[in-house]
Amino acid sequence: MDPQVLLLVAGGALLVLAVRRWLAGRWLRKVRGPPSPGWLLGHSKEFELNVGDLESEYVAKYGAVYKKMAPLGEHLLHVADPKALQYMLHKSGYHFQKSVVSRTVSGEITGPGILVAQNQDHSRQRKIMNPAFTAAQLRSFLPIFRSSAQKLSQKWQDILQNEPGSSKKINVLATLTRCTLDIIGEVGFDVQFGAMDEKLNPVMEAYKDMFADSIAFPSTFTVLFQRLWYYIPTPILKYVKYMPGKDHARFRRTLKIINEYSKKLIDEKTEAVLAGNEKKKDIMSILVKANSAESQKERLTDEEMIAQMATFLLAGHETTASSMSWLLWELSRHTEYQSKMREEIKAVRARVAARGDQDFSVSDLDSMTYCLAAQKEVLRLHPIAYMTERQAGRDDVLPLAYPITLSDGEVVNELPIPKGTTLRVSNWAYNRLPQIWGPDANEFNPMRFIEQEKMGATYVGVTSNLMTFSAGLQACIGWRFSIIEMQALLVELIEKFEFSIPEDKPEIIRFAGGLMTPLVASEMHLGSQMPLQVSLVQ
Ligand code: HEM
Predict the structure, then answer these.
(1) Residue range 400-410: mean pLDDT, rounded
(2) Looking at residue 313, what is its pLDDT?
(3) Which residue ranges make up each domain of the chain?
(4) Per the count of CB atoms within 10 A, which of 122, 344, 362, 421 is most buried?
(5) Residues that bind heme, according to the entry (predicted)?
(6) Does the predicted interface ipTM exceed a cut of 0.85?
(7) Measuring CA to CA, which residue among 318, 215, 310, 257 is closest to residue 528?
(8) Ligand 1 within 6 A of 171 CB?
(9) Is any atom of ligand 1 closer than 6 Å to the C-beta of 462?
(10) Contact 128/291 with Cβ under 8 angstroms?
(11) What fold does the segment set 31-536 form as a domain?
């Protein structure tokens, strides 16, 4: 073909593409949001001391769907609207995938596991993992949850020298993190990590403050470089993990330790299953068994199996420990509610003793209305995974429960978005929407879960209409695990101890370090902590 004609055809095609892209994005351009500080970095360097402060301000000003700017002039849609979330996460199947950045970073931390998988690959992995997370299976772990909780409470009783009325300031997050690591070790892999016994533990050392060390405060280079990931084909993006830089080095080091540890364990379990003598009921053993029953085509590869183990370690302990520490903090600020819970536990304890049992069953825990309500309320107010990212896989239209006003004054109850749009699922903002939770949405009020039967017309989330564990096909697989684990811990701790705010009233901030972790404002350099005054119950 004549080179001039070729040039003309190519130019025409590019023009058509540009016009199509411009037309597809015309609605998005009209969505309101805070003014961008600049084209190069957008809002990526916007700083908030406390997670959610700006998010709440923007949602109040612009609505449950608003826009921020990503680097290089790209739009970022923040979504807290229930109908839009239900559509994105439930109804549209896999059309809204985890974003390129979240999958690439998860891949660096865990390998090619469920946090990274997409489409059929994700559904294949999830199907094999599901048998380990059924309600019956997780309820059977209660005795392990309880004995770990009792071990934790013994540690604190020792610190308080078993003297009724004695009281000390304790960083509750530190012991809770060790406790939940021991739990995931035993329940997840049938391994005793001994973290509560202060044993040197390679797994604990590998994960310690990993997010705060690597993800918090990204450099300008990282921010810009990550934006370019959206234009790099996936097979090339895999090599990002070999880049220099403190975050990549930290991820490589962590994954190497976890992989070596996991491989040995999985090999032992696989051998036992193949020999037909695997009776263990830990999550990994169930997973190995479920995997060996699958066809060769569907089966998880060795690399994927190892990645699931890294995923459970990563997702399965700090999450619950942080949530528990927020729970004890709120109860320290609301001691009258804490007393109500103690009374409730006492009454159920009497019932358990009367029937001749040693400890609470799952139904006993489920009958503790005040305790359950406090747990739900804290999961609502303090969703430690406060934001997740998705990317539109096709041109789409988001339905809205709460209409928004565009920059030209038009009010719309649906929003067309072009393929490739990055959307931020705002678990934080959804959990605090006054339209759903009422005018006291920002207050700690567990009674809302007792007095109100149903909140909001459109239900999202996996439990109690909360977005804390996300929703739909890629929602947290471990939500029930966490809920039972927290119940077991909470009941033990409230039965034995009273919690209050220490006399020096440390200012606790919600730090955005991958997860929302508590930090003391005057001691940020010490990393995550939650100091509370702990006393033995009189
Ligand atoms: C309070 C505790 C927890 C919270 C708040 C939490 C929250 C979440 C959230 C929001 C997601 C969705 C992430 C996304 O969409 O990008 C998620 C996914 C996941 N969580 Fe949790 N999680 C918790 C505990 C656990 C536990 C205990 C386990 C395992 C034992 C676990 C395993 C997972 C896994 C495997 C996924 C990926 C699911 C998939 O992609 O299909 N989580 N979690």
Answers:
(1) 97
(2) 86
(3) 31-536
(4) 421
(5) 476
(6) yes
(7) 318
(8) no
(9) no
(10) yes
(11) Cytochrome p450 (1.10.630)
